[in-house]
From TrEMBL:
Chain ranges passing through the membrane: none
Membership in a protein family: Belongs to the short-chain dehydrogenases/reductases (SDR) family.
SUPFAM superfamilies (UniProt xref): NAD(P)-binding Rossmann-fold domains
Name used for this protein in its record: SDR family oxidoreductase
InterPro entries: KR_dom, NAD(P)-bd_dom_sf, SDR_fam
Pfam families linked to this entry: adh_short_C2
All residue ranges annotated as the Ketoreductase domain in the record: 4-180
Organism: Marinomonas sargassi
Length: 242
């Protein structure tokens, strides 16, 4: 893999953080974003990467980021649209505000992040979206989350057509259940988390996934080795959905 420049959104923990760490270890230049300044400062110092505060739900922050990168003459060979949340709620309890918040972060955010960063993308450039197995696997409390990821995946076909002349391709990974901060942020207790992970012992891989299980797929989609792929989905679920 030639050394390149990648921007990874939501890289202060979990899947995005591991991808950033491995990309840096391979000699790539990495820029990260997140929504929590302290965490950005810590990862920036640890990995030696530039970090920008850019809440996915704040569209002006995405366009400000695009302006900053343009000013610094940054050209991105790859963009990983990874920032996301899982705020579970049952169908009967979901409020319009919760519905809008999930879509703002998981769907509208990455859509406008890509639009805002278009001028910074190289020709060719690879965009990777972190989707979820939830697009085709039901979870109690996960209706809106599933829809946020399916909505973005639904747009990827058209993005591949509309951005082809710019040399931009878009593909996705669909992680299965992965032990990250997402469970605690979803309000799960340690016991609930453990029970969930224990239930995965019967899957082919026999365990919960860890963030680094996704790094290879992300780096492959960023690499020229996958340059013929458009709208591909790499499902990294340990066989959970078989
Ligand atoms: N873990 C799983 O089981 C699983 C399964 C399928 C798909 N996914 C997807 O994988 C992606 C990464 O999740 P993860 O499991 O690695 O969880 P994570 O450890 O919570 O990481 C999520 C990252 O996104 C950031 N983020 C959250 N909301 C944001 C916002 N509004 N603006 C900017 N950044 C924001 C987080 O920052 P803070 O730390 O400040 O919140 C963090 O850096 C998500 O898109 C998630 O939907 C995860």
């Amino acid at each position: 893999m030639k050394t390149k420049t990648f921007l990874i959104t939501g890289a202060t923990s979990g899947i995005g953080y591991e991808a950033a760490k491995q990309a840096v270890a391979l000699g790539h230049t990495v820029i990260i974003t997140g929504r929590t300044q302290d965490k950005l400062d810590a990862v920036s110092a640890e990995l030696g990467v530039k970090a920008y505060l850019a809440d996915s739900a704040d569209l002006s922050a995405q366009f400000d980021l695009g302006e900053k990168l343009k000013k610094d003459k940054v050209t991105l060979d790859g963009l990983v649209l990874n920032a996301g949340v899982f705020y579970p709620s049952s169908f009967v309890e979901e409020t319009p505000e919760q519905f809008d918040q999930s879509f703002a972060i998981n769907t509208k955010g990455p859509f406008f992040t890509l639009q805002a960063l278009l001028p910074c993308l190289a020709k060719p450039a690879s965009v990777v979206f972190t989707s979820s197995i939830a697009v085709h696997k039901g979870f109690v409390g996960g209706a809106v989350y599933s829809a946020t990821k399916a909505a973005f995946e639904g747009m990827v076909r058209t993005l591949n057509l509309e951005l082809a002349d710019l040399g931009i391709r878009v593909n996705s990974i669909r992680p299965g259940i992965t032990a990250t901060e997402i469970q605690a942020k979803a309000g799960m207790t340690k016991e609930q988390e453990q029970a969930l992970f224990d239930s995965l012992q019967t899957t082919p891989v026999g365990r919960e996934l860890v963030s680094d299980d996704h790094t290879g797929a992300i780096l492959y989609l960023l690499d020229d080795a996958s340059s013929a792929l458009r709208n591909a989905v790499i499902e990294v679920d340990g066989g959970y959905c078989l």
